[in-house]
Fold:
Amino acid sequence: MADIGTIKHDVSLLTEQDIYLFKEGSHFRLYEKLGSHIMSDEGAEGVCFAVWAPNAKKVSVIGDFNAWNDQSHPLAPRWDSSGIWEGFIPGVQKGDLYKYCIISKNNNYQIQKRDPFAFYSEIPPQTASIVWGLDYSWKDTQWMKGRYQKNSLTAPISIYEVHLGSWRQKQGDKGKFLSYREAAEQLAQYLHDMNFTPVQFLPLMEHPFYGSWGYQTLGYFAPTSRYGNPQDLMYLIEYLHEKGFGVILDWVPSHFPSDEHGLAYFDGTHLFEHADPRQGFHPDWKSYIFNYGRNETRCFLISSALFWFDNYHIDGIRVDAVASMLYLDYSRKEGEWIPNEYGGRENIEAVNFIKRLNLEVYKSYPDAQMIAEESTSWPMVSKPIFMGGLGFGMKWNMGWMHDTLDYFSKEPVYRKFHHNQLTFSLSYAFTENFLLSISHDEVVYGKKSMLGKMPGDDWQKFANLRVLYGYMYAHPGKKLLFMGQEFGQRSEWNHESPLEWGVLKNTSHAQLQRWVKELNYFYKTEPAVYENDFDNQGFKWMDCRDWERGIISFMRSGSSGKNSVLIVCNFTPVLHHNYNIGIPLGGFWKEVLNSDAKEYGGSGQGNLGGLESAPLPSQGQYHSLSLTIPPLSVLFLKQDRINMKIRAGNKVDKNCG
Structure:
């Protein structure tokens, strides 16, 4: 260990402009100034520490370098009433452990806190911060230059959602995580094999309780050390980029845990959170809610979001629990919440924060994506701020997900009474830039695995799941599946255990996996099913009213209007011959995908690769197809010679809702 010198109080990374922006609420690179930073002063190597604790009476840096002595290295408060304490300690090195010992003006309350701006932390349950740097020689220039194409709203986006600790674990070493570096090659190869486009990680920011899956975040600037150090995560992201895959991170600005060493009651007062529990405590998650009206707190959070783009080259952020931020009465009974200044339930401070967040991210990274998990009918979530929207790029379609899973949970004989659950989503499908998600939340806490949700015997369960996924990939909107869903894991997801990869020895699971692989390939290579995911010009119902037989059919087309694709879904186990469907133009229609094909585990019924249309008017169209529609199936048929846009797509059939 190096010799540790006396703390120096005349060394600072903060300028007057920094302080002005911090107080104003518009300093969005705070991580460059606060926290611990390795530097030299007058030839002496050491670390400059700075922490915001405006209600502290004394703040000291304690660590393994001074035997955790709170008298050795006291910080000094700045003269500018910013509430920031700082100091330079010669001899402190990369890898040294430290905390802040804070004595509050409030009844001399004393506590040891981790650094809110730490870049690295001890592996939980240990709680110290670690002095670290962010140096890394990136080799993903080609990806970064071209990622705007991958992130475009007209690009195919099929997301594989991953909890890194339980995706795979080390063979023969139960409970041992793959490190960031160990996961890189395996994950990239799997994404390639399955034809997914980006990966989305459940929160990788440091969190004390592993069972929170990362959603109880404390380290807003530190990747969890469970899987390695910051450079290890950088390597993982770089490797994925080099292999052609984007990286989206889950991020949680909606709440934080109450752990004593964290943000809560930081300087003996409610600094990051609201003091009033009706505003500052979340009843669902037993955690604290950020005070979005406080300038310094907004700086902290937006700095965190930009930090991951700046230093980890991420391609997008999925913002968790946006609905809980937007509504003051979220999960609260009457009398348990405080109305806004106009007497309403909308959290005006949170709305302003969200808009500023999206504005700053897109200003710095116009080629990135900001995605909202928002479960209500709040308008224009994914519309630009100048139009009155919240400014996100996309929004999870929770309504589609709930209706669809509820429909599929029913025995096919009863589905005709719930036909509108399939068709209703198209009445609002183009009001937002929707992402169709079947996430981790749908396969935990007694909700059953995706296979377990499906009714019937084993054959029917797999057939139902194939038609569900086919319908999902045909439906307008980008796509997201959680790990294990692609091969029909039988058990609910358990964060403590790896996925049930062993079931792939069973033919049915391997065939389902192949179906998802080929759905992904078709989706990302066929413009008709991705270019107009957010434009009603690319969608037209053929028939949405055959509730009695549980069949729907519709057309998807790309921006050119050429090479349209007809999709026919049969949600019952009944085989239909000579089923007539009207189509806009004649010609040969090739059956490009059939979920009932034997290679996917189906019964092998179909249309022998395709069929010629007949010039017989049907369903308001000039031509028609006489199809064989297999049981519990989805068919994709492509007419290569269509050379006109489906103009009628801008009118949604009001009987289909």
